[in-house]
Amino acid sequence: MPLSRRQFLTTAAVGTAAIVAAPAVVTASKTDKPLIVGEGEHRFEVQHEWPQLPEKYTWQTTHNVAVDQSGNLYVIHEGRADLKDHPSIFVFDPEGKFVRAFGAQFQGGGHGIEIRKEGSEEFLYVCAYQHLKTFAKMDLKGGIIWQQYAPMESGVYAPGENTRPEDRPERDKVWGPNRFLPTNFAFLDDGGFLLIDGYGASYVHRYNKDGKWLNCFGGVGDSEGKFRTPHGVWVDKRDGRTPSIVVCDRAHHTLQYFTMEGKYLETIKGFGLPANAETWKNLLCIPELHARVTLLNEKNEVVARLGEDVARITAKDGGQIRGDKSKWLDGKFVHPHDACFGADGSIFVAEWVGTGRVSKLKRLG
Q1: Which of 42, 90, 5, 3 is nearest to 352 (CA)?
Q2: Which domains does the chain have, with CATH numbers?
Q3: d(CA 98, CA 33)
Q4: What is the layout of strands, in order, in the sheet containing 278-280?
Q5: Cβ atoms 76, 113 nearer than 8 A
Q6: Position 365 pLDDT exceeds 90
């Protein structure tokens, strides 16, 4: 079975990847401003709780983030199923000011969000887990282009996984290796996309530009090319590398690389519950639920560990920190769940904490 959220806090972080630069450090105290993490060319000013919601809205476990071409930040949170009219997606301008909210249909299961430009227009790709088990393509104002459920033609899902929650024989949050609980997307050059089923059957599904299912690879297991909670996926096209698919195999604490056809290439170890991946120039960014954000260069050598608080979070009583803001430390992360780059290389980090937290790491120099 995949590692559960309750279990992961008791799982110690595994080995450390090769480090080619000194670990990230905090260079300011509570009374000093700005608060800086990182070293050398990988230095960032930390701005915790950068965007603020209007009083009529509340966070409930911030999950993923994405930035459009205008620099607006889109944040999806899980939300509460009993607050059906409360939006799950919030939009903030480049200064962190609230712009709009939508996506009530994902309340109680909001998870993955990515943005892609298609022609002259940008679109949101959104997925939801828990009882919702769905994914959709939307415009930037929240209008639905299409919405889908489990790809039954893959042959890996239980009956009813391709229906709306109210039409299923089992309406609760049913998890398992034959269930559909999608977590994230990656985009392909031909207009298609990859959708990863991180909490269910553990497959990477390939769709064409029209949202038609084509094939899949992966599945639950411990051998090469198999996964335990494959939570994030990205297409790595950094200069100097052959384009390939990287999967954050979270419960194995690894990244697995595949060809663009889905053939296994290699495994990179040394992470603590890696949750997602994104690239900017020569950098690969990996948010880790074990309290840090890792940056790797084009050789996949670690060049920075940002906001690291691994020892405290993975300690026996570390699970108490998530729900107690008084124990959060400036410049340190609790549970980074997703991270995305802005156009200038700044990083936005969403953390898996009940009160929600989105931090901006403003790139310096």
Answers
A1: 5
A2: 5-364 (2.120.10.30)
A3: 24
A4: 278-280, 283-288, 292-296, 302-306
A5: yes
A6: no
Strands annotated E in 243-299:
244-249, 254-258, 264-268, 278-280, 283-288, 292-296
Q: Which residue has the tokens 């199923």?
A: 81
* Tens digits of residue pLDDT in 295-320: 999 999 999 999 999 999 999 888 88
- Radius of gyration, CA atoms only, the chain: 19
Band the pLDDT of 23: cuts 50, 70, 90.
very low
DSSP 334: S
How many CB atoms sit inside 10 A of residue 343's CB? 11
Q: 7 by DSSP, 3-state: which?
A: helix
Query: What is the CA angle 302-304-309, rounded to 5?
Result: 110
SS3 of 270, please?
coil
**Confidence (pTM):** 0.92
269 contacts 15 by C-beta, under 8 angstroms:
yes
Residue 324, classified by CB atoms within 10 Å of its CB into exposed (0-12), middle (13-18) or buried (19+), is exposed
Sign of the alpha-carbon dihedral angle for 143, 203, 206, 293? positive
The single residue listed with the structure tokens 């944040």 is 75
Residue 339 structure tokens: 């991270």
CA-to-CA distance for 157 and 154, rounded, in angstroms?
8
Identity (one letter) of the amino acid at 351? E
- Please state whether beta strands 230-236 and 336-341 pair in parallel, antiparallel, or not at all (unpaired): unpaired
The SS3 assignment for 271 reads coil
At 9, the amino acid letter reads L
H or E segment to which residue 237 belongs: none
Q: 């993923």: which residue's tokens?
A: 64
